[in-house]
Specification:
- It contains 2 helices and no strands.
- The protein is mostly helical and about 90 residues long.
- The radius of gyration is 32 Å and the shape is elongated.
Length: about 90
């Protein structure tokens, strides 16, 4: 059973037409418009909030990597003594 390529071709043609329509793009109020409006302040606050979340996530990754490296170096300083010589390993089986 062969699928029709008409829906895919229609989607591509529609996407090309929509991207080439002569519609003027309006910039946000942070870039164009009144910088003293309430919307501009809210947009700036949202931008700083998103930057804060990105910084928090990156800082969390760095802190976790630091924690793992500290834990790995702390574990390697403990000498491996192995089983003591005075016990018989077969005693645990009986």
């Amino acid at each position: 059973m062969r699928r029709s390529t008409l829906p895919a071709a229609t989607s591509v043609v529609l996407a090309v037409i929509l991207t080439h329509l002569p519609i003027a793009a309006n910039a946000c109020t942070a870039c164009m418009g009144d910088p003293n409006s309430k919307t501009a302040g809210a947009i700036n606050a949202a931008i700083f909030l998103m930057l804060g979340f990105i910084s928090l996530m990156l800082g969390s990754f760095v802190a976790f990597a630091y924690y793992l490296s500290r834990r790995a170096t702390a574990g390697s300083s403990v000498p491996d003594t192995g089983p003591s010589d005075d016990t018989d390993p077969t005693d645990a089986l009986s």
